[in-house]
Design goal:
The chain is an alpha+beta fold. It is built from 17 helices and 16 strands. It folds into two domains: about 250 residues, BirA Bifunctional Protein, domain 2 (2-Layer Sandwich); about 90 residues, Rossmann fold (3-Layer(aba) Sandwich), CATH 3.40.50. The structure holds histidyl-adenosine monophosphate. Histidyl-adenosine monophosphate (HAM) binds next to strand 6, strand 10, strand 11 and helix 13.
Length: about 425
């Protein structure tokens, strides 16, 4: 191999595409930031047990997809495959749940790692923006989160995102449903691996994508028909709030998620332009997770939205996210004296908040003007010895081609005014 390339299932974010990625990340985070969620950042790796206990011993994420390592000191660590367990751990460790009122509302943005079979939209290193509301049981909190996510997709200009909604019950009603489902599944014609799954995690069988399995699942008992009164009322409360706020959703009684911690509300945002990896975001309630990882009872709810897949969804719809302004002014100095004068102009423009760039490396005027055009700037500021002798620089409008002299000592104010 003559050069290195990025590992399988990963990709580099580089200009110009990286600008859209950044804009998407900001748009997804804007909702929680406006809704009282505080920023949290946790390590990229954690003790393996946090995820095996939190996400679930029998999930694909833990059994097949976790990047684990043993340190020189013998500690077993895992690169984080998701954010919820880490964020809850951090909140518990810092006693945030005792510091003030509940819920503790946190948002985060980071990269996550899963050793999955790479394909379009499925990577081994990917980005999420997440939000978690810890320590409160209130249908309005579930609705708040769902609405924030739905509004984020809409703010980006996406029209093809669908919201799937389900309730997975609670420790009161799920055991009886689980038993009924197992009873049904044991009677089917399934391969040994799937039969083993029936015993460990029967709900996951509902999520089996194979046609041969799906065909047999017609008539399988559904959680919806086994919810206890409290879960039924809770779920109806969430649905009512979503309807009242005009957020469209589809009831999907077969929606199960790939992580074991969910109770009651679960949801997924899907986009039909993405092929098999259609989930652009997902989440739900996880009322028992805190106790699973050693904390007090803290009913909680949250979501994580996939940045990579949201970018792909925008591309599928042909929508360009609004980007913050790039370079607005590009300086083209002709000669050493002009380089010093225009370097000062560029520095002052930047200090005044105007994105500006400079022709570095002493190239000729032709190459420098080409760079100015490529930069996307609206104005080029050009100066040579003769201009400076007269105390002026040339301001060229790169859109119209018009050029006029401007006094050197007022050019920053002039450009600011023209660009505002
Ligand atoms: P998740 O459904 O595993 O949930 O992931 C959330 C989103 O991350 C997915 O909908 C998808 O957009 C993106 N994603 C997941 N895996 C990949 C991958 N291999 N490549 C690209 N994108 C991917 C969670 O992670 C939960 N922690 C969500 C949550 C928060 N539940 C409660 N709070």
């Amino acid at each position: 191999m003559s050069t290195f390339s990025a590992p399988r299932g990963t990709y580099d974010l580089i200009p110009p595409d990286s600008a859209a990625f950044l804009a998407v990340r900001e748009a997804l985070a804007a909702g929680p930031r406006r809704a009282g969620y505080g920023y949290v950042e946790t390590p990229g790796f954690e003790h393996v047990e946090l995820f095996s206990r939190g996400v679930g011993e029998s999930t694909d994420i833990v059994t097949k997809e976790m990047y684990t390592l043993t340190t020189k000191g013998g500690t077993h660590l895992a690169l984080r495959p998701e954010g919820t367990a880490s964020v809850l751990r951090a909140a518990l460790q810092a006693n945030l749940h005792r510091a003030g009122g509940l819920p503790v509302k946190l948002w985060y943005s980071g990269t996550y790692y899963r050793y999955e079979r790479p394909q379009a939209g499925r990577y081994r290193h990917f980005s999420q923006v997440g939000a978690e509301a810890i320590g409160a049981e209130d249908p309005a909190l579930d609705a708040e989160l769902v609405i924030l996510a739905a509004d984020a997709y809409r703010s980006l200009g996406l029209t093809g995102v669908r919201l799937l909604l389900n309730s997975l019950g609670d420790p009161e009603c799920r055991p009886a449903y689980r038993a009924a489902l197992q009873e049904f599944l044991r009677g089917l014609d399934l391969d040994p691996d799937t039969l083993a799954r029936v015993e460990i995690n029967p709900l996951r069988v509902l999520d089996d994508k194979r046609e041969s399995v799906q065909r047999q699942l017609v008539g399988a008992p559904l959680m919806r028909d086994h919810l206890c009164q409290a879960c039924k009322e809770y779920h109806e409360g969430v649905r009512e709030l979503l309807r009242a706020e005009g957020v469209a959703f589809e009831d999907d009684p077969r929606l199960v998620r790939g992580l074991d911690y969910y109770t009651r509300t679960t949801f997924e945002f899907v986009h039909d332009g993405l092929g098999a990896q259609s989930a652009v975001g997902g989440g739900g309630r996880y009322d028992g997770l805190s106790e699973l990882i050693g904390g007090p009872p803290l009913p909680s709810v949250g979501w994580a939205l996939g940045v990579d897949r949201t970018v792909l969804a925008l591309r599928a719809e042909g929508v360009d996210p609004a980007l913050p302004p790039g370079t607005r002014v590009f300086a083209v100095p002709l000669g050493e004296e002009a380089r010093r004068a225009l370097f000062t102009v560029v520095t002052e423009l930047r200090r005044a908040g105007v994105p500006a760039d400079f022709s570095f490396g002493g190239r000729g005027v032709k190459a420098a003007m080409k760079a100015a055009n490529r930069s996307g700037a609206r104005y080029a500021v050009v100066a040579g010895e003769r201009d400076l002798a007269e105390g002026v620089v040339q301001v060229k409008d790169l859109d119209s081609g018009d050029q006029s002299p401007c006094p050197l000592d007022t050019v920053v104010a002039e450009l600011r005014a023209r660009l505002s």
